[in-house]
Amino acid sequence: MYHTTGFSKDQILDLCSRAHSHTADMQKPPWPPVLDLYRAVVVTLTYLRRNRVQAALAETYDVSQSTISRAVSGLTPVLKNMLTEFVPTADELDPRTLYIVDGSLLPCWSWAGHRELYSGKHKTTGLNVQLACRLDGSLAGVSDPINGSRHDTFALNESSALISMNPSLWIGDKGYISNDMLTPIRKPTHRALLDWEKEFNTQVNKVRYVIEQAIANFKTWRIMHTDYRRPLKSFRQTISAVVALHFYKIACE
To answer: Does the entry feature the keyword Signal, yes or no (predicted)?
Structure first.
């Protein structure tokens, strides 16, 4: 199942054990009875990792599409809640550590009644998250999602990541210039960049590439990279579940 879910069999069994313990007090399990817990977890992980069409998953497991939908809907919040301990929070960031930050749009279908999701930068709809990593490329945190129409600076401020932090120890792109971070120099309107300014930008961008790698690694969860198809009201919960699973996976490595 590793190439399908991204998790080893032992890791999946551990997730099943955690899910069983987390739902022990419920009157009935949140997954469909036609699927045992193991298959329900595998189905949910596969859906989140590959963003497969539910009808295709239904054919694979010889069940109905509604069964797959109930498994995903039932287990996604369970995965989110039972793995909270693995998710770093803003107050756990080390004020002495240099972090590299960047925003990423997690796309969803174009919802006509939700223009606040539209990102002019990306020309599509979605939710914005801020990701921070260390110089070695290890992911340090992922912010809560906000509407895609918001600028990266606004999203970072909303995440509270820079409260009681020294912004001069953070590196970002030109979208974060107003935050007193180390950023590339923006071209003045009245002249071209000087040679030393170009070299400075080159050196900053050579450091910044690790956050691009961290984002690409996070988006191996294809549901974070391709349009989200489930009801919009479940999108934020799904993002939180994927973040929890991603940090759980990192902790297992």
So the answer is: no
